[in-house]
Design brief:
With about 100 residues, the protein is an alpha+beta fold. The protein has one domain (about 1-85): RelE-like (YaeB-like fold). Helix content is about 40%, strand content about 25%. The chain has two helices and four strands. The protein has helices at about 5-25, 25-45, and strands at about 1-5, 60, 70-75, 80-85. It has a four-stranded mixed beta sheet. The longest helix is centred in the middle third of the chain and has 20 residues, at about 25-45. The radius of gyration is 13 Å and the shape is globular.
């Protein structure tokens, strides 16, 4: 299985980490990061185990303990992570990424 992370996903992750580090300290930021990594691992292990968000290949995997989700595309032997988005963020945020 090939895994690709969109270059702007790092920006999404850094912004969320900065928020949790500032609001709750480094331990909260570490918990957030671990939850994001665990969610990505669940997707890689079972890419078809999450629901579609629109027609085509895009799916959404929610983090377990934080109000964020990963949007990704799943195709033959490929998972491409596109966006880390807050649950309250505009639904169109990041959907233009390829």
């Amino acid at each position: 299985m090939e895994v690709i992370y969109h270059r702007l996903l790092q920006k999404d992750l850094r912004a969320a980490l900065a928020y949790y580090d500032a609001e709750g300290g480094e331990k909260l930021g570490d918990r957030f990061f671990q939850d994001a990594e665990d969610t990505a691992a669940r997707v890689i292990a079972n890419p078809r185990g999450f629901h579609y968000i629109e027609e085509g290949y895009r799916r959404r995997a929610s983090l377990r303990s934080f109000p964020y989700h990963l949007i990704y595309e799943e195709r033959k032997q490929l998972v491409r992570f596109l966006v880390l988005r807050h649950d309250k963020r505009h639904p169109g945020f990041g959907l233009g990424r390829r």
